[in-house]
């Protein structure tokens, strides 16, 4: 029997000391109103003892604002250039004759080294003019014996030319 009385007493204490329906409904309502809702942007409500979380509101109509930012550029020099007058040097063509094309006197000449290939004219006027053109091995490519005043042609494949004194001076005529 003591046991039943003890159980009854505990039950009365538990039921009598518990919160009422009104007391339970207030925290539940506050908790439900404090749950944030999805919004385009938040509005801050200061926290107080009844609302532990900030609340969020969705405006009735929302128009996004797109702001176009145009960058501007202001150049700033890293250094200052100093302009100085510098003389302009231009190459001028001088008529310095090619030493290979200068007039040649009688003798032996290596073609391309001492005498230019091309057409040469004898300036002599006498008889007995002799000239010969040879290869590296000494073989005669072309030769002449006769009156001075004629021409000879030195090819680029010729090695050496011999000009006789009776032919006089030789003048280069060109290719």
Structural description of this entry:
Among the domains are: 23-59, no CATH class; 101-174. It has helices spanning 2-17, 21-33, and strands at residues 107-110, 118-122, 129-134, 140-146, 151-154, 160-163, 170-174. The chain has a four-stranded antiparallel sheet with strand order 1-6-3-4, with no helix packed on it. The protein has a three-stranded antiparallel sheet with strand order 5-2-7, with no helix packed on it. It has 175 residues and is an alpha+beta fold. It has two helices and seven strands; from the N terminus they run ααβββββββ.
Short structural summary:
This protein has about 180 residues and is of the alpha+beta class. Helix content is about 15%, strand content about 20%.
The overall strand count is 7
Question: Level of helix content?
Answer: 10-25%
What share of residues are in beta strands?
A: 15-25%
Q: Count up the helices.
A: 2
Specify the oligomeric state: single chain
Mean pLDDT: 75
- Spans where pLDDT lies below 50 across 5 or more residues: none
